[in-house]
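Working notes for the structural subgroup meeting. M.R. asked for a predicted model of this chain before we commit to crystallization trials. I am recording the input and output together here so anyone reviewing the notebook later can reproduce the run.

Input as submitted:
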Amino acid sequence: MRFKLGTVAIAAMLCYSISLVKGDENPAAEGPKPSTITIGEMRVQTIPAMTYFCTPAETTFAKMGEPVKAAFDRLFSAAADAKLLLVRPTMLTYQGNPHFDPQKTFKMEIGIIVGEDTKLPDAGEDLKVRKTEPFKCATILYTGTVDQQGQAYQKLIPAMKAAGLEPTGEEREMCLYWEGGESSSNVFFMQVGVK
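Returned structure, recorded in token form:
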């Protein structure tokens, strides 16, 4: 049951946020909302290698909701069936720096951080367990509602440029804490690979 509830919450969050990547307000919302977001400062960090249970997708931010929801449904179901130990948050891995040009099509992986000794469950050819490499990246923490999440990238990317950091083409985004799409307590960890 825990996996099913997690799937629903994550899928709802992602479906709600996809069209809002650039930080636009929710078009269905009535009236202006007070700002309930907090965006940290850019840091350069090296994130250690992790074991990642994931599946690939190719999409745009405008159409990302459906493939992400379908992927998390499959991943959480397979993880529950295989009794996998989920050790860290969910993670989206983007290729080609799509946050630098949010209108373009991009490749990504949708997944869950799992225990180091995890073996691939019998869950389909497109699901895999892989070890990530250590990831040198510019990072920023975002706390707030999903509909303003894109503002973190609007702060991070100019800060990277001002610091003379050159992106590698890979971006990662972890959901560290989740209460719901409109909660001001959600926490996301944005990471843009740098050389």
